[in-house]
Amino acid sequence: MNPFVFLLPLLMLKGLNADHQTITTMKITIGNTVFTATLVDNPTAAELKKRLPFTITMTELNGNEKYYSFRESFPARASNPRMIENGDLMLYGDDTLVLFYKSFSTSYSYTRLGRIDNPKGLAEALGRGEVVVKFEIH
Description:
Strand order of the largest sheet: 1-2-9-6-7-4-3-10
Number of strands: 10
Shape: globular
Strand content: 35-45%
Oligomer: single chain
Helix content: 10-25%
């Protein structure tokens, strides 16, 4: 029997999750360090994906996040996640991209964009103060 017959269904599912939604991964480069992030399936993340690739200078805030405010707004549907996790990628308001590098509880509302798959070393890569970050499709 041809082994390709068994692999064909698996190859067809590549890039789909259990709900048959397309999974989009993004490469985030900070200096010489590269992280992979998985975007959620919502209109905000779809708009972010349309704008890729881009390189931005992100600003430090509160010792737990870096942010960048775009000139153009995104479709937003904010809610309170209650808990922010290291590696979360969110939109604050309708124009501010936020990359969190520490976990903490929050009372603020965000629109979820995705998260870094393995955030180990993220805080060290982001460092203190402003940082240049490149976002692109993976």
